[in-house]
Structures are given as structure tokens and as C-alpha cells.
Design a protein that fits this description.
With about 180 residues, the protein is α+β, with helices and mostly antiparallel strands. It has four helices and ten strands. The relative contact order is 0.25.
């Protein structure tokens, strides 16, 4: 379940619209070199991020709330792209990814890098459910400036129950141990 984005205070789990979100894929990057042969610029490809209204990309805020409340002392805001589920409807993996926000019947998490979110139709995405891909998380900085800007671009926020599941799974993504999927 999600809530409308009536408030402007940015929170962990908020879906926001951004103009660009890079993919740190050096195999697909273009490298520009200067006159001395040193790298002067790396051009990164855009990942397949879901688009919302006005063609902007939908990303999810992954930074802790305390980092967002104190942006002066933080260098960046962690964001992860919202992607289409990487399986087709009817495929058992698709259904497993849709259910992967919470522990399963065996008390286990699956698809640690993905968190499914039902997308409000008002956001303008072409799918009903997307997945936040924690494995593509990046930092946008400087935090002081971008927190205020992102606060104005919130299009959907998670209700408290789903937000708690998001926080649990984000922590599990980083803290999973040997033998986890």
C-alpha cells in the first residue's frame, strides 16, 4: 500500500522523479581522453529506469531519514532506480518477485536486490508494479541542495507497513550472509 505524496519532507522509500540516472557499467561507457591521453570524462549509459509523467525517471530514496533531515553533514543522497520486473507476467519468477517484499512461508527473503512496489497510476509509469533495484544504487550530491529539490519531486510514498518492509529488505540486501540468494 502506498500514500499520496502530499507532504514535502523527503523520506526513505519515497519515489521521486529525476531527469537522469546513470548506470555504472564501464563496459558500455564511453571514455573521452584529453591531449595527454588521460581520461577527462566518462560518459555512462542510462539504465532501463521506468519513466513517469513528463518522461522523467522514477527512482527511490534509499538514504536513512536522519541523513535526509541533516543534509548539511552528508555528501549525498542514495537513490535506486525503479525498474520493470525482470520477468514476464505468468512466469513464476515474476510472481515470486512481486511477493518478495516480505518474508516467505519459510521465513526467508528472496531476490535481495529487488523490492517490489505497486505504482500509483497518477505517477504515469507504464506498469502497475515495478522493482527498486538496490544493486544499482547511486549517490546524488550535494545533499543539502538535492534534498530540497527531491522533496518537491516526490510522486509516491510508501505507507508505514510497506516502508518498514522496505527498510528491512534494504538492510538485508547489504547484510546478507553466505548461502543467501
Amino acid at each position: 500500500m502506498t500514500e499520496a505524496a502530499d507532504e514535502v519532507e523527503l523520506r526513505q522509500g519515497d519515489l521521486v522523479l529525476v531527469d537522469y540516472f546513470p548506470s555504472w557499467d564501464l563496459d558500455k561507457a564511453s571514455v573521452l581522453t584529453g591531449p595527454t591521453g588521460t581520461i577527462s570524462q566518462v560518459l555512462l549509459p542510462a539504465p532501463r529506469v521506468l519513466q513517469g509523467r513528463d518522461g522523467r525517471l522514477i527512482v527511490c530514496v534509499c538514504s536513512y531519514d536522519c541523513d535526509l533531515e541533516n543534509p548539511r553533514s552528508r555528501t549525498g543522497v542514495a537513490l535506486a532506480p525503479l525498474m520493470a520486473i525482470p520477468a514476464k507476467p505468468g512466469d513464476e519468477r515474476y510472481e515470486a518477485m512481486r511477493r518478495s517484499a516480505r518474508l516467505d512461508a519459510d521465513n526467508r527473503l528472496s531476490y535481495f536486490q529487488l523490492f517490489p512496489i505497486e505504482i500509483d497510476p497518477a505517477v504515469g509509469a507504464r506498469v502497475e508494479v515495478g522493482v527498486v533495484d538496490f544493486s544499482q544504487m547511486m549517490h546524488l550530491s550535494p545533499a543539502l541542495r538535492v534534498v530540497a529539490e527531491l522533496s518537491q519531486r516526490v510522486v509516491q510514498r510508501l505507507d508505514d507497513e510497506l516502508r518498514s518492509a522496505f527498510q528491512f529488505k534494504l538492510a538485508a540486501h547489504f547484510g546478507r550472509g553466505a548461502g543467501d540468494e
